[in-house]
Specification:
CATH topology: UDP-N-acetylmuramoyl-L-alanine:D-glutamate ligase
Structural class: alpha/beta
Helix content: 25-40%
CATH superfamily: Ribokinase
Radius of gyration: 17 Å
CATH architecture: 3-Layer(aba) Sandwich
CATH class: Alpha Beta
Number of strands: 9
Number of domains: 1
Order of helices and strands: EHEEHEHEHEHHEEEHH
Strand order of the largest sheet: 3-2-1-4-5-6-7-8-9
Largest sheet: 9 strands, mixed
Strand content: 15-25%
Amino acid sequence: MALTAMTHTQLSQLPVVLVFAGLDPCGGAGIQADIEAIAAQGCHAASIVTCLTVQDTRNLYRSSPVNADLVRHQAQILCADVPIAAIKLGLLGSIAMVETVSAFLHEHKSHIPVICDPVLAAGGGQELATAHLLEVMREILLPQVSLLTPNSLEARRLAGCENLAEAAHKLCEFGCQQVLITGTHESSERVEHRCYNADGCFDVQSWERLPGEYHGSGCTLAASLAAQLAQGKPLVEALTQAQSYTWHTLQAAFQIGQGQAIPRRYSPVKSSAY
């Protein structure tokens, strides 16, 4: 599966990104974050909710997966009607949902790029993935993924090792074509995001570390990457543009509650590399 997407001449409308993600009621993360980031990149989001949550800007308190058969039916109907230029995956929330989405990707993805943000825990630390769910993701979901975008904590947990380069190698062995490991949770002075394929690290980008904590930064980055690739951008260009966009949304983040700030995705932000 190559990291290519439909060109504009193949589409009669804006490039469409199909999103599978959870619903965050405060609007900081999840499917609302994806829709805003995708729209900001000049694409349209066709969105399927996989999981309902009880959540605020501080933590996630409860989650309830949507019926997997309903999600399957929604996706099939959409794909029969709408030309999909990229697919973005967020919180799936259950083994049944991982199996459903994996089967859908196996049937429909063709040469469409699939970007997966492996949401394993909420921003406040609430776990969202059991050991069994991680095992199923490794076995049937990761082989369908063009670009995986874990933070360093997620990469270590999903790969089962501490060294990040080794973790990226293992994730590629599981079947991912590329793995972008973000460095927000590391202790470096600047935040480094490193992208790997089976041959090793091929792109490193460094960003000023911003103060505070943010709710939905991973969703924003993965969704904007999906939109960039949906427009046919080369991978390294897409990585640069999406990281720049995300950094500026964090720089302009705003507070709506007592927890983490929310990226300002919908206001005009700079798109050139920092």
